[in-house]
Specification:
By secondary structure, this protein is an all-alpha fold. A two-stranded antiparallel ribbon has the order 1-2. It starts with a helix and ends in a 7-residue tail after the last helix.
Length: about 325
């Protein structure tokens, strides 16, 4: 009897190879689907990170990374001694802050409004029209904006002329350029951003609304006491992720729309890195600026995540 018990116990103990088969083979197809995504991040995200070492070198294209001279924190010191950098940083923070204040609530409002629509044809039409700009490049949208906002024959200035106002060159006026940036970014991304919130709204228990109706709550009360609290965790997570990109204001958008007349209000870190790194071939300095931006984003994400957890919300991790 003892020998049989020992044999049964031994049969239950799995070897490392058997354990590997137990967690891998039942889900091999799912792991296979993950491979392209993993390869993408390794090749295009992690491998290029090794090039960040040139921020600590006087990098020479001809000498290469291995032969270039190491200079430590020299280029980081140059960043804070460069007066132009402070102008660029101020523009970046202001544009990012405007986009956060006006652009972040936009998808939430749109999702709530769409969720209240009961005519499916109208709802689907509005959704399609709201999603469409996301799939257009800024090159296409930039051409549209140039024509719509043109001072001579643009639609907007045509309306202004009808009311007796002088035409405004929106894309060449420093007082208007940031407004155009923020408004066009909201127009392009509001529909796409609303998708996540619509999915979260679909998961709200409808019995909560039924109970609220019985208690006499109108639509505004239902939104305030049921809808928004149910979206809080989703809003917090997306806000934390958004703070990680607080210094990313959209290179393609600004590069397509800006011109020398509005450099004072539109030159941001991304265009500054492009100009110093590509056009002036100062690769080490531009890499240091880009690394500085990434470090700031990392600090903000970690701090925002800790703050969210202290407030009793679920963080990103």
């Amino acid at each position: 009897m003892g020998k049989r018990s020992a044999a049964a116990a031994a049969s239950l103990v799995k070897s490392p190879a058997q354990k590997g088969h137990s967690w891998f083979w039942p889900y091999w197809d799912l792991y296979l689907i993950m491979v392209p995504g993993i390869v993408y991040f390794i090749v295009f995200k992690y491998v290029p990170m090794t090039g960040a070492v040139i921020a600590f070198q006087d990098y020479s294209v001809f000498a290469g990374i291995m032969e270039s001279d190491w200079v430590g924190l020299k280029h980081f010191k140059e960043i804070f001694l460069d007066t132009e950098f402070y102008t660029v940083l101020r523009n970046t923070l202001l544009i990012s802050l405007y986009k956060l204040i006006w652009g972040f609530p936009g998808p939430i409002v749109l999702a709530i409004l769409l969720n209240e629509v009961r005519r499916m044809f109208f709802k689907k039409t509005v959704q399609t029209l709201a999603y469409l700009p996301h799939f257009l490049s800024w090159v296409v949208l930039g051409g549209i904006l140039y024509n719509v906002l043109a001072p001579s024959n643009g639609i907007v200035n045509g309306i202004l002329k009808l009311f007796g106002h002088e035409p405004v060159f929106f894309l060449a006026d420093p007082n208007w350029f940031r407004t155009v940036l923020v408004a066009s970014d909201i127009w392009k991304e509001i529909g796409w951003g609303a998708i996540i919130y619509l999915a979260a709204l679909a998961g709200i228990d409808q019995q909560l609304y039924e109970a609220a109706v019985v208690d006499g709550a109108n639509k505004w009360r239902q939104i305030w006491h049921i809808t928004l609290p149910s979206l809080t965790s989703t809003i917090i997570i997306l806000l934390v992720l958004r703070l990680g990109h607080v210094l990313d204001v959209g290179f393609e958008q600004i590069f397509v729309l800006y011109n020398p007349m509005v450099y004072s209000v539109s030159d941001v870190i991304e265009t500054f890195v492009y100009r110093t790194g590509i056009t002036q071939a100062d690769f080490s300095f531009s890499t240091a600026v880009g690394l500085f931006k990434s470090i700031v984003g990392l600090i903000l994400v970690v701090a925002a995540n800790k703050l969210a957890k202290k407030l009793g919300q679920n963080g990103v991790w």
